[in-house]
Design brief:
The protein is mostly helical. The longest helix is centred in the first third of the chain and has 24 residues.
Length: about 50
């Protein structure tokens, strides 16, 4: 796979993570809020 192919895959992955984060953030369930808080606290990606 070319460098451009890897970059596209990374962009797709980042978009999917953003979708998951948005879905969890919209939930009122305390366990998902705790999960999201822990995920954001340990994530070093640009989309966090």
């Amino acid at each position: 796979m070319t460098a451009l192919g890897w970059m596209r895959k990374a962009e797709e992955y980042a978009r999917e993570l953003d979708l998951i984060r948005d879905r969890l953030a919209a939930s009122d369930a305390p366990h998902w809020k705790a999960f999201l808080a822990a995920w954001n606290a340990t994530d070093t990606s640009a989309s966090a």
